[in-house]
């Protein structure tokens, strides 16, 4: 599993949802691996370098530092 594969999956999910919509990073991890739970920290790290916004209860957070569930969505102006 490469970071590029993770990035492509994250961006595909974000674009499929479209602007103003979010998804759980576990959706990407599940699409990439049967052992998705162990992949979650890496998914968050890759997400941090993409034009995505991570939120927790509607507030922007750092996807790597945030504790607990987060949502990811396209950054404003991204398509």
Task: Write out key terms for the chains shown.
single chain, 79 residues, alpha+beta, four-stranded antiparallel beta sheet, 4 strands, globular
Describe the model.
This protein is of the alpha+beta class and 79 residues long. It contains three helices and four strands; from the N terminus they run H-E-H-H-E-E-E. A four-stranded antiparallel beta sheet has the order 1-4-2-3. Helix 1 packs across helix 3 and helix 2 (25-32) packs across helix 3 (36-48). The longest helix has 15 residues, at 3-17. The chain starts with a helix and ends in a 5-residue tail after the last strand.
- Rg for CA atoms: 11 Å
Order of helices and strands: HEHHEEE
Note the beta-strand portion. 15-25%
Give the CA-CA distance, first to last residue: 25 Å
As an assembly, this protein is: single chain
| Low-confidence residue ranges | none
**Coarse morphology:** globular
Number of strands: 4
Helix-strand makeup class: alpha+beta
Strand numbers in spatial order across the main sheet:
1-4-2-3
As a percent range, the share of helical residues equals 40-55%
Overall pLDDT:
95
Main pleated sheet? 4 strands, antiparallel
Give me the number of helical elements.
3
């Amino acid at each position: 599993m490469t970071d590029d594969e993770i990035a492509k999956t994250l961006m595909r999910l974000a674009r499929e949802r479209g602007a103003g919509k979010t998804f759980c990073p576990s959706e990407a991890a599940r699409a990439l691996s049967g052992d998705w739970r162990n992949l979650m920290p890496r998914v968050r790290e890759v997400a941090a370098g993409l034009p995505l916004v991570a939120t927790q209860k509607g507030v922007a957070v750092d996807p790597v530092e945030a504790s607990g569930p987060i949502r990811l969505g396209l950054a404003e102006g991204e398509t």
